[in-house]
């Protein structure tokens, strides 16, 4: 029997705001796609000084995806890079990130403009 793989999308947008990588995530993040997500996040972080992820389109994530985000945040911090998340309080995953104090490793704001101002 084949394991079901959940879908997610990571779209990287070009920015004219200096050395910033902006990624927009949508879908579900879990054990079935966590390894690929981690690889793709590392790719977008190469050669930039700031990474911003827009999580507005994330419907669900499990502990495996949460660990990927924490490892990514710690890696960016160790490299001296800034990390921000666009995430309004009404997002399906906002409460989870609040419970685990993700704001200790990333700037979390409801809009891109606010994230950029906080980095």
Might you state the CATH topology name? Answer: Transcription Regulator spoIIAA
For this structure, what is the CATH class? Alpha Beta
Major sheet: size, sense and barrel closure? 5 strands, mixed
List the helices and strands in order.
EEHEHEHEH
Tell me the total number of β-strands. Answer: 5
User: Beta fraction of the residues?
Assistant: 25-35%
Q: Structurally, how many domains make up the residues?
A: 1
In short:
With about 120 residues, the protein is an alpha/beta fold. About 35% of the residues lie in helices and about 30% in strands.
Write a concise keyword list for the protein shown above.
119 residues, alpha/beta, Transcription Regulator spoIIAA, 5-stranded mixed β-sheet, 4 helices, 34% helix
Tell me what you see in this structure.
The chain is of the alpha/beta class and 119 residues long. The protein contains four helices and five strands. The chain has a five-stranded mixed sheet, sandwiched between helices. Strand 4, helix 3 and strand 5 (107-109) form a beta-alpha-beta unit. It is globular. It starts with 7 loop residues before the first strand and ends with a helix.
Task: Summarize the topology.
Layout: E1 8-13, E2 20-29, H1 34-45, E3 50-61, H2 63-78, E4 82-86, H3 94-99, E5 107-109, H4 112-118
Parallel strand pairs: 2-3, 3-4, 4-5
Antiparallel strand pairs: 1-2
Helix pairs in contact: 1-2
